[in-house]
Structure formats: C-alpha cells, structure tokens
Amino acid sequence: MNPIISRIRNLTPAQAIVSYYFLAIGISVGLLNLPGVHQDGVEVKFIDSMFTAVSAVSVTGLSVLNVSETYSTFGIFMLMVILQLGGIGIMSLGTFVWLLVGKKIGLRERQLIMMDHNQHSLSGVVNLIIEIIKILLLIELLGALILTFYFTQFYETFSQAFIHGLFASVSATTNGGFDITGQSMIPYHNDYFVQIINMILIILGAIGFPVLIEIKAFLSGKNKNFRFSLFTKITTATFGLLLLVGTVVILALEMFKSFRDMSWHEALFAAMFHSVSSRSGGLVTMDITEFAQGTNIFISALMFIGASPSSVGGGIRTTTFAIAILFLINFARGKNEIQIFNREIQLIDVFRSYAVIILAIFMVLFATIALSISEPTLPITAIVFEITSAFGTCGMSLGITDELSTFGKILIMVLMFVGRVGLISFLFTIGGRTTKTKFHYPKERVIIG
Amino acid sequence: MNPIISRIRNLTPAQAIVSYYFLAIGISVGLLNLPGVHQDGVEVKFIDSMFTAVSAVSVTGLSVLNVSETYSTFGIFMLMVILQLGGIGIMSLGTFVWLLVGKKIGLRERQLIMMDHNQHSLSGVVNLIIEIIKILLLIELLGALILTFYFTQFYETFSQAFIHGLFASVSATTNGGFDITGQSMIPYHNDYFVQIINMILIILGAIGFPVLIEIKAFLSGKNKNFRFSLFTKITTATFGLLLLVGTVVILALEMFKSFRDMSWHEALFAAMFHSVSSRSGGLVTMDITEFAQGTNIFISALMFIGASPSSVGGGIRTTTFAIAILFLINFARGKNEIQIFNREIQLIDVFRSYAVIILAIFMVLFATIALSISEPTLPITAIVFEITSAFGTCGMSLGITDELSTFGKILIMVLMFVGRVGLISFLFTIGGRTTKTKFHYPKERVIIG
Ligand SMILES: [K+]
Ligand SMILES: [K+]
C-alpha cells in the first residue's frame, strides 16, 4: 500500500480532524495569496492573510483587516470558498465522528438512520455525508435567493445584489460572520426581515448536524419507531435556553442604557440578535462597544459556552455546559446519577465535561494574562471578549483585533484553531489513546473545599 | 431534653458550621458597637461595622474603613478578639470535621493520633481541640513576643510596641490581614526580618490544622508506624508549588516593570511575600496597583484557589485545585484512575472538586457582572481582584473596597462568608443530605466538546 495512505488510515479520528484543519489552513493561505485576490494597490502582510485564513477556515470571523476594502470580488469569492471548506469540513467530520461514536455504542437512532439509507458500508457513510453537504448547500442557496431578491431594492444591478446575498447567506449559514459591508449588519439594524433570515441561517448552522439529520429522519416519517436521541434533546434544549436567557439578560442589562432610545421591538430584536449571534454567528446589528462592561462579560461567557458539538460553532459546546449544570444540580441534591429526559448520563461523559471545562478555563486565563501583558494599552474587558470570541469561534469583537501585536495575532489564531477542533479532540491528540492501568493503589479520602 | 439543645444536636456538620458563623458575626457586630470602641468623634455606619465584622470573623481583612483612624485601642483589642473568634472557630470546626471524616472512613493517622491522645469519646475530641487552640495561641504568643522586642526600636514605649506586635502576630497567624499602621506592611518593605516572621505565621495559619496535628504527631516520635495522610501530602505539596509558581511568575511579570528599580533581593522578597500573601494572608509590602493588569489577574487566580481545607484560608482550597489538575493530567493520558503518592483518589472526591469549581466559577462570574453593573466607574480588573480576594478570604485589594456601593458591600460580604464556610458545606446546607436513587434509567452517550 502507498505509505502515505497507510499513514492516513492509521490516524485516530482526533488526529484526522487536526490534520484536516492544518491542511485546510495551508490551502486557504494559498488561495488568499492568488493574484487578483486583493483590490488594486492593497498589500497584505503574511501574518494578516494567515490570520484571515485561520479565521475563515475556523469560521470565526475575527478580522485584522477590512474585508470590503481589501479583497476584490474574486478575493471575496475565494473567502467564500474557504468558509465552505471550513463549514463543510466541520459538517463531514462531525457527522463522521457522530457515526463512529454511534457505531461504538449502538446508538439506536443512528442505526435507524443508517438502515433508512441502507448504509452499512463506508460508501454508505460517504453517501450520507454527500447528502448532508447537499442539505447545507440547499440551505445556503435558499438563503442566498431570498436575500438576493430582497437586496435588489438596495443595489443597482442584480449581480451586485446576488454577490451580497450569496456572501451573506454563506457567511450566516457557516457562521462565518465575515461581512462585505464593512459594518457587519449595522446597516440592517431596522430591517427585521434580513435579521430574521440571518438568525435562522445562523441557528441552522450552529444547532449541530446530528440534530438536522434526526429532524430530517423525523420529518420523513419512514420510521414509526423513530425517537430523538438524548444528544439531540440535550443540545437543542440547552441551545434554546441559552438563546432565551441571553435575550432576557441582554435586554435587562441594556434596557435603560444603550437601548434607552429604542422602541420595544427594536430593543427586543437587538437583544435577540446578539444572543443568537453569541452562539457562534458573530454578526452585530449595533456598535457593541456601547454595551455596559457587565453585558460584554456576560456575552463573553455565552461565547465561551459556544454552540452544539458537530456544528459550525466552537467553545466548550452546549452539551459540556449542560452536563456540568445537571451534574451540579444532582450533586447538590445528593444524587450520584444524572437523570434527564428519562435517560441516565454516563460517567465518562461527566469526566469529559470536567476535563473540557478545566482545560478551557486554563486556556482563557493563560491567554488573558498573556494578552494583557503583550497589549498593555488595551482594556481587559475587550481582551477577554476577544479571547472568548476566538475560542467560541464566534467572531464578535470590541474592535481590538486590528490593534493586536504579532504575538497577540498568533495567540488568537491558536485559540480559534483549538475552539474549532474542540478541546476533547485536542486533548486526545496530545495525550494519546486510552491505556489500562495495570495495578491499583489503595484508595484514600481527601478533604475537599 | 431542652428543645434548643435537641435542635443543635440534629444539625448536620455543614449546618453547624454555617450556624456558628452566623452567631459569630452577630456577636462581632455587637462587640464593634460597644461604647469606647471608636476613636473620639468617629461615627461608623451600620453597614460598615457589619462589613468589618464579617471581614474579621471570616479572617479576610478587606476593609471599608481605615482601622488605625477609626478604632480606639479598646476597639483594636475587640477586633483582635473577633479575629480569634474567627480563627479558633475555623480551627476547631475544621478539626472536628477532619475527625468526623476520619471516623467514617477509618483514617489510619487519625486513629493513631486518637490513640496517642486516648481520645475515643467526645471529651477526647474536646481535649484535642483544646490542645490545638493551645498550639495556635502558642504560635501567636511566640510571634507577638518576637515582633514586640523587634518593634521596641520603632516605638517610644514598650506597651505601644506590644500592642503593635501582638496585633501583627494575631493578624498574621489568623491570616486576618488587618493592619493598624494604615499602610499594611508597606513601612516594612525593606525589613526582611519582619517579612519572614509574617510569612511563617501566615503559612502556619493557612497550611491547615490537620497538617499541623500530623507534623506534631510525627515530631513526637511516639508512633513508630506513623505516616502522613494523603491529604497532608497533597495539600502541602500543592501549597508549596503554588508558593513557588506564584513567586516565579510575579517576579517574571514585574521584573522589568514595578520591580525595575529594585535590587535582586528586594524584587525576590516582593514576589515571595505577595505570593505567600495571596494564599490567604492579605498583607502587602508595596502598592499593588503598580502591578501590571496581567499580574493582578494572575494573583486573582491564586486567591481564587486559596489555602488548605480546615485552615484559616478560603477559596476553592488547594486540594480541590490539586485534584482538578491531577484529574486533567490523568484524563489526557487516557487513565481512569488518579494515582498519587502511592494512593488512589476516590471518585466522590473528584465529583466534589468538580462541583466546587463549577459553583465557584459561577459565583465569581455572577458577582463580576453584578458589580460591574452596580459600580460602573470601577475598573474591571479591580472588581475581579476584589471578588476573588473576598472569596479566597485573602483581603488584598486594588483599593476599591471603600468606594463600593451598599449593594457592592453586601455582595462582598456574602462572598467572604461563602469563601469562609467553604462551598462544599454551602452546597450541602442548601441541598440537604444524600438520597439514594430508587430506580435507574437506561444510560445513553452524549457527544461532548
Ligand atoms: K463565527
Ligand atoms: K485574609
């Protein structure tokens, strides 16, 4: 066998994911340095096109440069290709891992869906992934068409409207969060139609592909015995709750501050849009530096939690957060088992959530200290916001991205990468595989807290 | 039986601890409002004497007023009584809980020590606690004498030197962190002798009483079979490592900044003293607002971790931190058991550490958002520093304590109380006792991170 193929076959899923992203970043840097990518007379430093590539592949959307003033139409098209590379990569790899986990533990819905598609072989898996890519492209195209026709009222030519509509749809669905208006969604702060379309596209991207697959299987109605998996129930419930809590808290904190001159529906939409956006979308409809510091710390916490696993979003993921909360509630009640939706959470998943949270907190803390030393003039709230935004692959910023030093840019790139790959994959890639302990020491209690 | 005594006997240990502190705070508020406590013409608002009482009982040391300008010599004596009430309370309750846990799980060293003191009855436990109080008072007296004789060179009369020496010793040993110079330890920033005495006293208070008891048992040499408990090994190792890492990082971050005009030994002592102080002492030898923001965030993290369980310090405690780190390392290596010092950590202790960390992070995050909304003019680094200082019952401050609104003061009081009682006790007091689940749901896996 070809030694390279043999090596690829020996990769663990985690190593495969990390390798894919490294490769994708390499290709993206190449694409962003093709001739004709930049507008006439614009020069971009290597570190900055590297940053744009990492940001686009990880579908984060943080940007050290103004996209609308830097890239030509061809360049914007390339950026869209890279967003697809990131988005589809996540989707395929996410689905692949989901199927793998399903195979190992005999997930009932997976089996049903597999049967549904007659997919017991590798080619079956490939077919399923192709079908999912079709779903994504369909969503993007639908969004693009709706936005294009709507945008024809703002632009002189249809092709201009189409470019903006297509880019907006791709950017929202992949949760890329880049904008070619130069002002994110601020020009549409009174346009609820555009906002609603964007929120729907963002949610479809961030809710997780297993959820989309199960909803499709449910809607098809072919399997009488179909039930939603525990994963889908937990992640959807958590996602919904985070959106609700996010909207209510942002509204409460800003009602008499940055929202004070708004009508009730303007304020509601502003709160709702930024709550949705904090899951992973990264678009804004107003200048968020106007928010109170407390609001921006709250949004940082939301971005740190991030979106569903196997979605275009990052962070510690909804399920990690949900299990931590469920664990805490059960522990305070003196229960040893976590029961939810008539199912019991397994111990290994409690352990995983613990590991992910501890590691994520260390990373954010370390990055905060490092950045506050390397960028002494930047306010700490903006630094924490930037860091959690990168780790959550969200892309909102308090406007400091282009002021970062080279060290700061590299640090944010690493955080976007880790946020994208996911800490569990990262942990296993560093730490290797599970090993069995050969002998046991006697156990002994320790006083905690 | 007297119904009140019967009620007290039915308290869980956690409820007993919470009740003790409530009672102690009540008594302390009374003591601080006795006639003659204040200097002539000084009026103190109720919320402020309440704050001082909570700060002294929890041996935190945060202060909304200038102790040296507010309290008379009698008042300072009362403050010392309250620090003892807090310090001895912690010591006795800590030892009691330690013995209780030891009884339940048959801790070998506990049995040896109990045999050593012929203490198989309640009166035996009381005797042991009395002996520990003797140890504490001995340490304080020794410290007081050394400092008094040393201070005679600075003060005109012996009694002045004695008052300052005694207060300094009590404040350091109980980790109270109050000062009657009005400038903490800044006047002694070049006096390494006073600093070393203070550091030793702080460490003796913060290392945990079980550790002191075991060292005493070890030194007595009566038991040939004596070995240190896993708890003592873990907490001492973690304590030492935190001191070391704290010193090195503070030195590295400030070497070319606030330490740039210092000689190497001045810089080393400054780094060392604030590292020791961040465990729980709360004294400072320089104006710490001169530290870089990154350094103060790092110190916040150290204060959040805090000191040993069953010590005069607070925070999540060294053992909680140690188990989290050990868990993470083992998890990354793919091991399911945590092995350290030839012993295995029990699952319940891993769970406890998880619960404590999650709850503590929520508290700090909630408090940060709340304070940044209620005190919009204060910088966020100072707010986070104040919050972690209160939760870690450390008492260092970036100087905002007396600028807090009434809401802010109440919030900081709650944090000092929770930090003192410990989150595990807090959790069980709210959540009640352990209950057994009657039936099990099927288990199902969830995708994490
Ligand atoms: K994003
Ligand atoms: K203290």
From TrEMBL, chains A, B:
It is found in: Cell membrane. The chain crosses the membrane at residues 12-34, 74-101, 122-151, 192-213, 234-253, 312-332, 353-373, 410-430. It is a multi-pass membrane protein. GO terms for molecular function: monoatomic cation transmembrane transporter activity. One of its GO terms (cellular component) is plasma membrane. Keywords: Cell membrane, Ion transport, Membrane, Transmembrane, Transmembrane helix, Transport. The keyword Amino-acid biosynthesis does not apply. Pfam families: TrkH. This is TrkH family potassium uptake protein. It comes from Paenisporosarcina quisquiliarum.
